[in-house]
Amino acid sequence: MQKEDIISTQIRLPAGIHEYIKQEAYRLGIAQNAFLIVLLEQGRKLWEADITHFRELK
C-alpha cells in the first residue's frame, strides 16, 4: 500500500464498542486501528456475501 492509498478518517463510537475494541486489540497484541480494520473487512465480506437463509417452519 502506498501513502496515497491511505485515507485518514475520524469516527464516533459508542463507549461499549470502543471498550470492546480496546480489550480485543490488547488481547490479540495489535493496535486498535488494526483490529478495527479487521472488523471492517470481515463485516464487508459478510455484507457482500451471497447468503441464502433457510428456516424450518414448525
**Strand runs, count:** 0
Main beta-sheet strand count, sense and barrel state: none
Low-confidence runs of at least 5 consecutive residues: none
Q: Tell me the strand percentage band.
A: under 5%
Tally of separate helices: 2
- Helical content band: 40-55%
Shape descriptor? extended
Q: What's the mean pLDDT score?
A: 90
Please report the distance between the alpha carbons of the first and last residues.
Answer: 52 Å
Q: Strand-and-helix sequence, N→C? A: HH
What structural class do you assign from the helix and strand content?
Answer: mainly alpha
- Supply Rg: 16 Å
Assembly state: single chain
Give the secondary structure arrangement, pairings included.
Layout: H1 15-28, H2 32-48
Helix pairs in contact: 1-2
